[in-house]
């Protein structure tokens, strides 16, 4: 079996005390687009003592490759071009591509990047296959 360019994907977000946890779950499920996945929940305390929940999941192998391709196709072309243009700001030397998706827009079926209160996606590229930056560029150029 030939291994894909993506080794794993981590998806995480924070559910604040003021948010409906069911809506946060729906946003994550919309992002995963039918890829069945278990979520891990960490119950934490915020800066002012308010309860927050960190929700995360990890995808590997075929699920990771499938998810990454689906996510990139769902992003508007203008945002894919921004990721390509600013690839150095959205990646690191360890082969990770970082994308922040707007949690509220996901509930409307809209895949947009956002900095405030996002769903964080870390796509880990397989360094054994070749140049990670080149693999990232190929993924982002996908139609």
Return the string of H and E elements.
EHEEHHEHEH
CATH topology: 50s Ribosomal Protein L5, Chain: A
Q: Report the CATH superfamily.
A: Ribosomal protein L5
Radius of gyration: 15 Å
- With strands numbered from the N-terminus, the spatial order across the biggest sheet is 2-3-1-5-4
SSE class: alpha+beta
Oligomeric category: single chain
Q: Give the helix tally.
A: 5
Percent strand: 25-35%
**CATH architecture assignment name:** 2-Layer Sandwich
Account of the protein in words:
- Strand 2 and strand 3 (51-60) form a beta hairpin.
- A five-stranded antiparallel beta sheet has the order 2-3-1-5-4.
- The chain contains five helices and five strands; from the N terminus they run βαββααβαβα.
- With 143 residues, the chain is α+β, with helices and mostly antiparallel strands.
- The protein has helices spanning 21-32, 61-74, 77-85, 103-106, 132-140; strands at 6-15, 40-45, 51-60, 96-102, 118-125.
- The mean pLDDT is 92.
Protein topology:
Blueprint: E1 6-15, H1 21-32, E2 40-45, E3 51-60, H2 61-74, H3 77-85, E4 96-102, H4 103-106, E5 118-125, H5 132-140
Antiparallel strand pairs: 1-3, 1-5, 2-3, 4-5
Short description:
The chain has helices at 21-32, 61-74, 77-85, 103-106, 132-140; strands at 6-15, 40-45, 51-60, 96-102, 118-125. It has 143 residues and is of the alpha+beta class.
Name its key features.
single chain; about 140 residues; alpha+beta; 50s Ribosomal Protein L5, Chain: A; five-stranded antiparallel sheet; globular
């Amino acid at each position: 079996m030939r291994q894909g360019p993506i080794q794993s994907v981590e998806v995480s977000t924070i559910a604040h005390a003021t948010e409906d946890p069911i809506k946060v779950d729906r946003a994550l499920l919309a992002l995963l687009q039918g890829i069945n996945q278990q979520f891990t929940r960490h119950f934490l305390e915020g800066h002012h003592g308010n309860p927050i929940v960190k929700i995360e999941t990890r995808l590997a192998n075929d699920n990771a490759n499938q998810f990454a391709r689906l996510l990139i196709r769902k992003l508007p072309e203008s945002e894919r071009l921004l990721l390509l243009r600013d690839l150095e700001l959205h990646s690191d030397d360890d082969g990770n591509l970082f994308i922040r998706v707007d949690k509220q827009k996901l509930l409307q079926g809209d895949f947009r990047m956002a900095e405030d209160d996002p769903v964080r996606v870390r796509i880990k590229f397989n360094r054994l296959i070749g140049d990670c930056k080149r693999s990232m560029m190929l993924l982002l150029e996908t139609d």
